[in-house]
């Protein structure tokens, strides 16, 4: 037991894939989850993230490739022999057992003692000591969720797998449980692999996020890195919001100059996908909160920042900030988020405005991609 | 008058419920009352006077207790056989995709749909053609056969509503295939299996038609009652009937009490 606690290892997936008949759920995939980290698999439903998780748990057999844990190949092991535990979507608590017996289930199967003392300690950790004799259906959603976490964690797995564990909770409870899970992970130091479709959840909780799309990992990195330096349109759109502008390269030096919508924009050469020959095409991207907005009349002349003029078509007041939609030659619906600092009155739809941003905040993507990839429409949100 | 009508209307559901209940319970009440009768002559059809004679000597009629114990043994074995087989069939039908699954799924209802007398006659033909000796064994085989479809139906409904993730969770928590089945699958399916078993017991215990065709010289309790009704009905039949009714009610009441206690303890 103590040995397991101290010798957790990296999860390493090598060339792992899953096909059902002619449908490929996960394309051959290499992934290493460092020991002790909080790792998130992020993607829309059907992107293969849950299948990947289930292959680590052993609940799904990999079509090709191997799963190893701390250097040991566990591909051929059935789920009950893997030192891995899962918190299931909608929890899968045993309805015929009370909270204590649910939590004790793994200990009893392995003959670990003392069961009662360990269960009591675990229930205290998740603050459910008073509910030990309840049945799952007598608990609220948040309580059930904590039982599910306790039932998995009590076994001190080398890796804890979480399959959309917060999906069934309401928003405020979900926020609280995010912090709670993060606290528990820091406290126990176990590797967490977390599957979610909620990009905010992934960014708040995880050290490393792998963005999955169509059975492939699109990009992997720290949340801030993914947000600032998306490498595909899918990542740029799925993680937060991006303004993508089609542009043609004019010249390339330390700064790349592009023309878009009748004007020119600049960005550092380091933020372009190589190579950048003049005449080549790019998608230039800028996050909505990086843009500053001024009425066209007040705008200073050229100050070295990228500059686009347009007209506000929509303004949405959100309390702390206002979201604007701006129509311009560079893009039909550029989004701008402005903090309501009160330094000037908010702008009304119809106003002529100048959008400006630092060239260093500009990123560029390969133009041969679908600009709309990863944009979340109303139907996508579960 | 209008007031009375109004009060009546408000209690209409209760009144209708009570009347229906009386309709259901009345025959049992009559059986119970007549178990304390001392009839003049051989037929226990008119009330004469109160007596405990039959209760003091329930086996006082020749062959009655023999037929009763035979029926209980057949019912117990038929329930066991039908429950084990039916549970396995139900799991197979819900969990696995195999050839002719659809056909099995509908054929399993055939014994329920077919008129019992037709089935009884065809079974007899089958047994005679096979050269089987009619008796305990042929009755048992017949009972398991017609109880099967009821068990399958009851268990299938339960298994279908079971979340397959519960078994995955068990496997994930170090339970091997056997442990998963014993600790999770079986307890969760248990209410369905119990319902199926109870149904099988009741059906087997009081079956007359199929049994009568296939029993040879063996006499089960329903056959005994039928036979004696031709030449007089001993009060002991009412005693046995009342006792069975009491046992059934007791089982239901105890079950309810246990469930209530478990619930209130959990909420403390």
Secondary-structure element sequence of chain A?
HEEEHEEEHHHEHEHEEHHEEEEEEEEEE
Count of β-strands of chain B? 0
- As laid out across the biggest beta sheet of chain A, the strand order is 6-7-8-3-9-10
Strand-pairing-aware structural class of chain A? alpha+beta
Largest β sheet strand count, sense and barrel closure of chain B: none
Question: What average pLDDT do the residues of chain B reach?
Answer: 90
Shape of chain B: globular
Using the coordinates shown, work out and report the CATH topology of the largest domain in chain A: Rossmann fold
Q: What number of structural domains do the residues of chain B give?
A: 2
Shape descriptor of chain A reads elongated
- Termini Cα gap of chain A: 40 Å
What integer is the average pLDDT of chain A? 88
Order of helices and strands of chain B: HHHHHHHHHHHHH
Helix content of chain A: 10-25%
If you had to describe this structure to a student in words, what would you say it looks like?
The complex is a heterodimer of chains A (382) and B (268). Helix content of chain A is 23%, strand content 35%. Chain A is of the alpha+beta class and 382 residues long. Chain A has two domains: 2-228, Rossmann fold (3-Layer(aba) Sandwich); 241-366, RNA polymerase II/Efflux pump adaptor protein, barrel-sandwich hybrid domain (OB fold (Dihydrolipoamide Acetyltransferase, E2P), Beta Barrel). Residues 1-7 and 378-382 of chain A have low confidence and may be disordered. Chain B has two domains: 1-61 and 236-268, no CATH class; 64-233, MetI-like (MetI-like fold), CATH 1.10.3720. Chain B has helices at 2-10, 12-34, 53-56, 64-95, 101-107, 110-113, 116-130, 136-160, 164-172, 177-205, 209-214, 221-231, 235-267.
